[in-house]
Description:
Layout: H1 14-31, H2 40-51, H3 66-75, H4 82-95, E1 99-104, E2 109-114, H5 116-123, H6 135-138, H7 142-149, E3 153-156, E4 169-176, E5 183-191, H8 198-217, E6 228-231, E7 239-242, E8 245-248, H9 251-262, H10 269-276, H11 284-298, E9 303-304, E10 309-310, E11 314-316, H12 317-326, H13 330-336, H14 348-368, H15 371-378, H16 387-396, H17 400-413
Parallel strand pairs: 6-11
Antiparallel strand pairs: 1-2, 1-5, 3-4, 4-5, 6-7, 7-8, 9-10
Helix pairs in contact: 4-8, 12-13, 12-14, 13-14, 15-16, 16-17
Amino acid sequence: MTDPWVALEPGTDPAERGRLLRRAYESFTEGGTVPRPVRTVVAESWRRSARAGVVPESTARVELMDGELGSYRAEHPLARVMPLFRELMGTFAADGEHLLAVCDAQGRLLWVEGHPGTRRQAGRMNFVPGARWSESAVGTNAPGTAVAVDRPVQVFAAEHFIRRVQSWTCAAAPVHDPRTGRVLGAVDITGGDGLAHPHSLGFVQAVARAAETHLALLAPPRAMADALELTALGRDEAQLVANGRKIRLSRRHSEILVLLARHPEGLTGDELQCALYEDESVTPVTLRAELARLRRILGPGLLGSRPYRLTRPVESDAAVVERRLGTGAVTAAAAVYAGPLLPGSTAPAVVRLRRRLADGLRTAIIARRDPDLLADWARAPWGEDDLAVWRALSALRPAATVQARVAELESEQGVPVGRVHPARDGRARPQPR
């Protein structure tokens, strides 16, 4: 096959290809081997799906419902290009008895539109807005695999990992933030064998590129036009976006910006010094020198004094997580949480913020009893030793690998069976960016 991302090349008999794939799929589920003619991208996805504990009889779980879904969609960057998606794909989906679907970067479906009859059929397998179709949740599928590998991909028939999806064909392409390059989600076309053609993959890829171009051309919302954007979760050196300019901050400047973003009213020199330094011997001169350097880096007019404050609104990823947690939107909060706040910082105020944010989200995830959210936390660097989360996951998804990890942690931490290990403070090894 000349293009490994295309499921069927022109001239291939879909029925014959489907029979070969079903035999290969059964061979994998029974013995773990992946024979030809399974494409490499599909074989690798099957293996990841199996390692994630997905079983062939799985069903997608609906995570976002009603008000939480509505508020999350309204806030999501891809909401701004939904009119474009509908214009480019809506008629094609409706007339061809297909579905237009858009998911976020965690594989949750945000919009599913198209032919009414096809939507009803898809609803029976929970291919509906709010359902999680990530690869780690339901195995190989076009939108979930596209965001997992960050490539446009087509999935045909028994290439899907769960059996109830194997009568469908889908093609999806990731959509990226044109400023940062991060994956925002994916746009997908789903239907029957009629989509098993290279043109459907090329089509969604072109639509995704058009969406990225459109996002780049759109002016920011007026209320946030002058706002600063601070990214400090999961990284020791925060990034500030100001006037379209990306500024990578030093560790100390990262701490200062996190604290000033937290206190828009400003902080006095004494308050900032107590918040930043454990060592009481540090003099005010040291802090003033740091602030002078920071003022030069930020440019004129952004850092005020008496008290020290940022002169423009700041939107930080930590604040987004807190805001979503405060409204009970646990899934949406977890989607933004890229790791502990400035994990290497020892500044007293930052340590308190980091612990409060991590513990708040961790507690909410345990209480939510969502196996996918628990699995995401447990397998992240900051959660890999979190016994309470692994135990909660084991109660809901008692796979052998999960139970083995619980036993291993109990042995390592010397915690008797039935005792819950105290919460960690949210610190983790610095993660590369």
